[in-house]
Structures are given as C-alpha cells and as structure tokens.
Design a protein that fits this description.
Number of domains: 2
CATH topology of the largest domain: Rossmann fold
Structural class: alpha/beta
Helix content: 25-40%
CATH superfamily of the largest domain: P-loop containing nucleotide triphosphate hydrolases
CATH architecture of the largest domain: 3-Layer(aba) Sandwich
Strand order of the largest sheet: 5-6-7-4-8-9-3-10
Number of strands: 19
Largest sheet: 8 strands, mixed
Shape: globular
Strand content: 15-25%
Radius of gyration: 25 Å
Amino acid sequence: MPLAQEQVQVQALNKIIKFPIIKKFWDYLSGTTARINFLYGGASSGKSHSMGQFFVQKFFEEEHNKQFLVVRKTLPALRITAYKLVIDLIEQYGIPKRLNKSEMLLQFNGNEMRFKSLDDPEKIKSFNVNYIWAEELTDFTLKDFRRLLMILRAPNEKQNQLFATFNPIDAFHWINTKFMSKSHDKNILDILHSTYIDNPFNTQEYIQELEALKDEDEQYYFVYTKGKWGIRKNIIYNNWETISFQAFPSYDNCDFTIYGMDFGFTNPSAITEIRFKDGIIYERELLYEAGLTNPELITKAEILIPDKLAYIYADSAEPARIKEFKRKGFQNIRPAKKGKGSVAIGIDFVKRHKQYIASTSTNLIDEKRAYKYKEDSNGKVLEIPVEWLDHLMDAERMAIYTHLVKMGAKKGGAYFRRLAIQKKNLRDEKSNKDSSSGLEEETKPITKLLKEEKKKDIILTPRTNRAAKQGGVFYRGR
C-alpha cells in the first residue's frame, strides 16, 4: 500500500508548495509518454484527485506557453466536479492564480487551462491543445472522443497527451470494445488500473462498505470494489431522460411539488425536488454532501427550500432529526412511509411516471443509471434494490410513495387508472390536435380527479382533508 506521506512540491511565483500524493498515480503520470492514457478502476481509488493534482503541478511548474483542456460531457457536471476540484486544490495549496470565472479560464506563465463541456461540440472546435483531461469518459460517445483527439495538435516539443478517468461500468462500452480489449501500442495507448487499496486516504468505514459489496451484489463488487468491467443488467429505471432545468414547468403551473430527504453524515445527505405536472415528474438534485451535522443540513435546507410550508418526506429512522427540522419552522416535514413491501411498491410508483431529470443533477443521474435489482446466490433477480449509490434514489422513492399514498393513490386504484388515461390523451393530443372534446373530463389534472374521487374509491386521510383546500397549507406549500 502506498504511503500517505509521499509528497510533491510545486514552485509558483517563488512560493514552494508541498502536498501529499498517491505514489502509484504520480509515478505513472510523471512517467508516461503515451498519447492516450486511460486511468480506470474502482470507487475511491484516487483517480480524479490525482489527475487534478497532476494538472495543477504541470500547469504551474512544468510547462510554459501550453494549452490545457479539462472536459466533461455536460457543463453542470463539469462545474461541480473537475472544475471545482482544480480550483479547490489551487486555493488549498495557496497558489496565486489568474482566473476568469465567466470564461472558466486559468492563466499562468503563458499557459492557459480551459474548462469545457461536450454537450455542444462546437465549443471545442476552434482551438488546439497540448494536454486534455477527460473526466468520466464513459459519459462520452466515441464521436466525442475522436473530436478530442483531433484538437490534440498544438505545437509541443514533447508528446501531446490525453488523460481519461472513469469507472468500468459496462463491458460493452466503446472504451472497452474499441480500445482496451484489443492489442495496442503502449506508445499510443497506456492504461493504469487502480482500486480503493491504492488510496491510503480512504477511511476504514468506507473500505468496509466497499468490501461488503461482495455479499450484496456481484456486479457492483466487480465494478466499484475490484475496478473490473461490469455488465449493466437488472437496471431499475429506464423511463427517464435529462432536460434543461429551464424547461421545467414553474411552481405555479405544477399540480404539486414535494421534496425528498435522505439523512447522512459519513454517507452524503441528499435532497431532491420533485414537481408533478399532468402525471409527469420533473426532478432535480438540490443537495448531495457528506459530513453535514443536522444544524448544518437545516441551514442549507433553509436556502434550498425557502418555503417552510413545503411537504418534505424524510427517513423515518431518524425521528430526532425530523423533530429538529420542525423546531426550525419546517412545519410539513414528515417521516416517510415504510413497512413490508414499501420499497418495491415505492419503486413501482416511481416507474409508473415518465420522469425528466435536470441536466445539472449529476449525482441524481449517476444513481439513476446505476440503480439495480439485487440477485441471490443462484442469479435470481429479487424485487429489492442493491443498497449502494442510492441516497437520492431513497429520497425520491420515499417522497413519491408517501405523498401519493397520503393523497389516496394505491396500486391498481383510481389515481393510476386516471394517470394512464391522462398519458394516453396527452399522446393523442400530440398526434392529433383535433382531439374529441368528449375527452375533456378525462384530461383534468390528476389533483382535480383525486378530489372528485374522494367519495368513491379514493380515501384521503383526515390530515390531507384539512390541508388540501383552496388557499390552505397544501397549496401554499407548493
């Protein structure tokens, strides 16, 4: 195991800075001469952090008049990951910097480091670079990757290089099928594999969590613990896609808006906002952060959820934390409904809705992609999810299930029958703008239908009856 006290030093503007490194990565990065470099492996091996350190050292110490590019598939993901990491490292080391925040451009000693996304390929078409760091390469298409190689042609007395970091989530990904599984010239492509064992800065608690995946799920264990290529199967959610948050319906135009909260400390605390409109869910990640005490979480929630009358559903296993939120004015925070079969039923409730996820919700998207059903020792798929990378998934499921049950929805009940009718009618409206006026009754918003069914097969709880009235807490809490 590498030693935590291994250090490297940088001299910038006559200031010497020393910082701890992971020796395995530093030896590789400082020694490779390959044009393409894949750094892949398991969770928390130190890939991204080491690449950030290496780019900082190379930018401030080693190179002059060179062009650096740090890139991710989407700009929101870039801002909260690689961009934030590099800027945080520079500030942590106390290195003076010239940063144009609007352009996301660093300058030093003739060097320029740009931070770009490939959601619009035109953003990188017009310039050439010497060094590229592509973070989470599995998010990129093969066409994206080839575009990056095409701009790796700025003048350089040494080899221009591309570095890519990623987890091996799918053995059928083009990274594996087109490159890694084939023989290759090490002068063109070099590969470094790593796992949590290579990172001496991991906590013992996190190590135990990774090792416990062996008994939880074989594929997760292969990908996140062993850092080997996995096969994507038994994925739970396929009924979603990403869109810009600007395309979301406004609060006032939604049927209702709720929030899900999953408490954490060592693991991240997570908050998600869920808007319902015409039977469609619009969701965005508000918080995903570890190490927060409950007072710190409350302070952040007061900024993220300024309406303290909003309905928030939180983990019922933490009643003391929920009470503290109530004391701070969050009147409608409620323990999420749990019980036998509630996870499977909750997943079913989520599946029945088309979902749009805000493209800024990096962790929510990552969890959606990875969330999968567990298998037993014989390979039989179980109707329970693997308990890993599920903080926002838990928050989402608990909130949707609890709120819809509170409104009277039940599996096979009127809510989902009306939801199916509404989905069909919305599809018909798209294909035929001259839809029959006789459908008017059936295309009423779900919330109105629920009120009309109140005396039929939908029973609202007394609490909901008191709250869900025009001008009442329910509507003020949207």
